[in-house]
User: Which sequence fits this backbone?
């Protein structure tokens, strides 16, 4: 038996007896052996699919995916493949100069698709800037995500169109917006829930701690979904915390659970569980999806300066897409035709995204002055007029061109 | 109707209270949030009695975390609510500065107009009450510099009442600076009046020799200055700006074109203060009308001093009169 973390282990009422949840007395072995390459002192995590694609039983969470069909599994696989293809296309587009920057989600497909597919339409998502897979699940057109990375807008999609808020770049801020939105759901007497995405780096932000506090005090129906991808640009999680991140929840009085972030089924199950808690009035939950950022932080980053290839190689063996493919194949849930069709669909998506980005026009200069205020502002009007006069002065010099 | 009295004499703090009460009564989406705003009624009693009458779900005692207050207010606004949040004192707003500047101010533009954030941030501000450190500051310029925010500050009870109504009805975020040293000053409030636009200045005293422009706590001082100057045979016009973003430059210009001299007075430090912006723009607009450079009276480029020194730091009658003299000497 390995030694548990340094955090307190008193069982908590709210945490119930779920394996791997905060403060629960863990009984070792079955879930523990799946934790992978990191130190043996790492705590248990919820896993339903092994890296080899073998379905393992979990007494607590199996019921949340009990009714899943082969078609559902193929759907999850398709989501992950298309998300990865979109992501790769965006990275290429950045390299071609079509985008100024791209933040790749490579390696985090299972965490995003699993949690994203656990949501109902009336639930609300507050993403970081890397939730391309969740956006896909919400039905946000992938090309809409690229405007801000191309530099033609700072977001621009209608958050209420798909209940998917704008990407938030300042780290952790959106967890408070999610909490406030969830407080509003409670006031409305609705049974919707909110999910707030953030990362291991954000877990150090004061806003995240305040979001935990507010959500706990007001028992807000919010799921805090932390993708611990091990790296906050160049800083490993050890630079953010001396306890496993999911255990942070304990001090705030709500349960936290660590899930194998590369297991789409486990992410689906655990997120459904957390959402059900929210809907049932049981308040917030922290989910730590233990995953890995396979690529750079963004296209401007150079991970060779701070991490070794062998770490990446260890995680490649736990690839989220590969493991579901192995499962689909061994369970005879998908045939060659399915994979071939998906390959063709992927290429078509890549082509569509490429063409859409290249055709994306620069905004009109006057967009600078648009939507600064909802009810207008005298100074903005004045400066817009000055800008117009300045622009017009060139036309005069050019003989009225 | 003859004899009908719709106006009441009330203190500025009570006027804000009555205005919040009216908003809570008329719009079920209005919420009041902040530290100690519930049972206590706020440290200045501005929210006195509101939780008792509207319940804990609408008048919300929050955890002691300013970023959390503004951040959750943003989320509530996204859900369709109209939160009025209280920051307990001026010097405590900075933990929320990131949420205000980075999120609250920009979200309407980021969403290309699809999201509106009708959030009012109330901040009791300014000195003159002998308070301890961080309880007497005037940070309005730190917000006026940020596009997406609107900044107002009433100088009297009637404006406090009506400007709060208008701020709550605004679809833009409004930072509402309440002059805490004037909280107990009483004046008539007509709750049936039809108020003028929120972001317009008002001439509170006509004059011909020089314009004094101020807002919030300094308007009363400027009226006293005008009284004193009148005894010396000088006619000063006093302009209550009421709004710091936007600033009603048209009204200032109109006044300066008559008086040809301008002194701007605020408690905030002069350096990069709102007076600097007013001086620059009025110089542009009124260059050939001005008989003297625009002068400013305000705080110094030093941390707000301990209470025993604040009278030397804050603009007072003599310092403003000194500036008036200097302007008239040109």
Assistant:
């Amino acid at each position: 038996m390995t030694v548990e973390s340094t955090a307190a282990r008193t069982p908590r009422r709210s945490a119930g007896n779920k394996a791997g949840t905060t403060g629960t007395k863990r009984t070792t072995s079955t879930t523990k052996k799946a934790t992978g390459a990191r130190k043996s002192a790492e705590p248990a995590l919820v896993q339903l699919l092994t890296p080899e694609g073998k379905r393992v039983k979990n007494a607590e969470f199996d019921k949340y995916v009990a009714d899943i069909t082969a078609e559902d599994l193929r759907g999850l696989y398709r989501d992950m493949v298309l998300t990865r293809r979109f992501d790769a296309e965006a990275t290429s587009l950045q390299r071609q100069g079509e985008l100024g920057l791209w933040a790749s989600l490579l390696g985090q497909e299972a965490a995003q698709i699993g949690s994203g597919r656990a949501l109902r339409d009336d639930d609300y998502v507050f993403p970081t800037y890397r939730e391309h897979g969740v956006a896909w699940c919400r039905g946000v057109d992938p090309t809409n995500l690229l405007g801000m990375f191309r530099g033609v807008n700072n977001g621009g999609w209608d958050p209420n169109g798909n209940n998917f808020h704008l990407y938030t770049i300042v780290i952790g801020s959106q967890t408070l917006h999610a909490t406030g939105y969830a407080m509003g759901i409670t006031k409305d007497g609705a049974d919707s829930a909110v999910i707030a995405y953030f990362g291991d780096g954000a877990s150090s932000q004061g806003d995240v701690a305040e979001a935990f506090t507010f959500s706990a005090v007001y028992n807000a129906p919010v799921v805090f979904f932390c993708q611990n991808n091990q790296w906050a640009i160049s800083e490993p999680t050890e630079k953010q915390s001396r306890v496993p991140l999911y255990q942070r929840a304990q001090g705030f009085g709500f349960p936290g659970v660590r899930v194998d972030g590369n297991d789409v089924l486990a992410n689906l199950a655990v997120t459904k569980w957390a959402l059900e808690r929210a809907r049932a009035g049981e308040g917030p939950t922290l989910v730590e999806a233990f995953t890995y950022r396979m690529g750079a932080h963004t296209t401007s980053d150079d991970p060779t300066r701070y991490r070794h290839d062998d770490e990446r190689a260890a995680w490649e063996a736990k690839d989220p897409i590969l493991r579901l493919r192995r499962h689909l194949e061994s369970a005879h849930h998908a045939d060659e035709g399915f994979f071939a069709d998906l390959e063709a669909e992927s290429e078509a998506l890549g082509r569509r995204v490429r063409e859409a980005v290249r055709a994306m026009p620069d905004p009109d200069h006057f967009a600078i002055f648009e939507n600064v205020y909802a009810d207008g502002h005298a100074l903005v009007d004045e400066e817009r007029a000055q800008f117009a006069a300045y622009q017009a002065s060139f036309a005069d010099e050019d003989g009225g061109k | 109707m003859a004899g009908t009295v719709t106006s009441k004499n009330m203190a500025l703090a009570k006027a804000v209270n009555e205005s919040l009460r009216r908003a809570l009564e008329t719009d079920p989406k209005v919420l009041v949030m902040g530290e100690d705003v519930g049972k206590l009624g706020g440290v200045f009693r501005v929210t006195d009695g509101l939780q008792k009458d509207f319940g804990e779900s609408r008048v919300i005692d929050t955890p002691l975390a300013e970023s959390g207050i503004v951040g959750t207010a943003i989320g509530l606004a996204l859900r369709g609510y109209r939160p009025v949040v209280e920051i307990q004192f001026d010097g405590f707003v900075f933990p929320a500065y990131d949420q205000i500047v980075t999120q609250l101010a920009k979200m309407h533009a980021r969403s290309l107009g699809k999201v509106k954030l009708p959030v009012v941030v109330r901040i009791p501000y300014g000195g003159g009450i002998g308070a301890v450190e961080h309880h007497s500051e005037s940070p309005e310029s730190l917000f006026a510099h940020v596009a997406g925010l609107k900044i107002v500050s009433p100088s009297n009870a009637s404006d406090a009442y009506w400007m709060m109504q208008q701020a709550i009805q605004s679809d833009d975020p409004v930072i509402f600076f309440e002059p805490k040293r004037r909280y107990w000053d009483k004046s008539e409030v007509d709750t049936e009046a039809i108020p003028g636009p929120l972001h317009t200045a008002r001439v509170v005293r006509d004059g011909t020799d020089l314009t004094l422009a101020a807002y919030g706590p300094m308007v009363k001082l400027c009226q006293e200055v005008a009284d004193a100057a009148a005894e010396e045979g000088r006619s000063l016009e006093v302009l209550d700006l009421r709004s710091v973003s936007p600033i009603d430059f048209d009204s200032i210009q109109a006044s300066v074109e008559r008086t040809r001299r301008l002194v701007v007075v605020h408690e905030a430090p002069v350096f990069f203060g709102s007076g600097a912006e007013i001086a620059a723009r009025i110089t542009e607009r009124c260059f050939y009308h001005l008989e003297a450079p625009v002068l400013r009276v305000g705080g110094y480029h030093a941390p707000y001093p301990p209470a025993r020194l604040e009278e030397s730091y804050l603009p007072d009658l003599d310092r403003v009169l000194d500036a008036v003299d200097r302007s008239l000497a040109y």
